[in-house]
Amino acid sequence: FSYSLFGTFVSCLLLVEAVNRYLIRTDINYQNINQSWEMEGESKPKKFCVLIAGPVVEELQVKFGHYGDMFEKLLRQGIDESWKFYFCMEGDIPSDAELSTYDAMIVTGSKHDAHADHPWLNILKARLAAAYKRKQKILAICFGHQL
Questions:
Q1: Separation between Cα atoms, residue 22 and residue 37, nearest integer Å
Q2: Which member of 18, 36, 51, 145 has the greatest number of CB atoms within 10 A?
């Protein structure tokens, strides 16, 4: 077990918590999004996905689960949400059409080099570029923000 990996993991969780607190402080939170949808006459479930770019250290995964589990537990706001996890490093990457159906997405950290020439990484970068052009909400953590 590496303390530097644990430190990176804790830093990522602290960053997610800081982002969540910022969103709440600035009134850009799920409750306001829910109210704006209701004002427009819509009451639809929110769809979120977590694009997992690397595994959690085994010692931590036993206690906390994978990154998708952690982010859902931290950010879930209600029962009117659906969460899907994609293990991108294993080639499980949603198509552009599927990715466009999500209200927001999270890109996790990874031990991989964000500038490497891995086939799965090139596909993920292309999907994220398309999502960015569609102005989808993307929260990218550590490795994810380098993409």
A1: 21
A2: 51
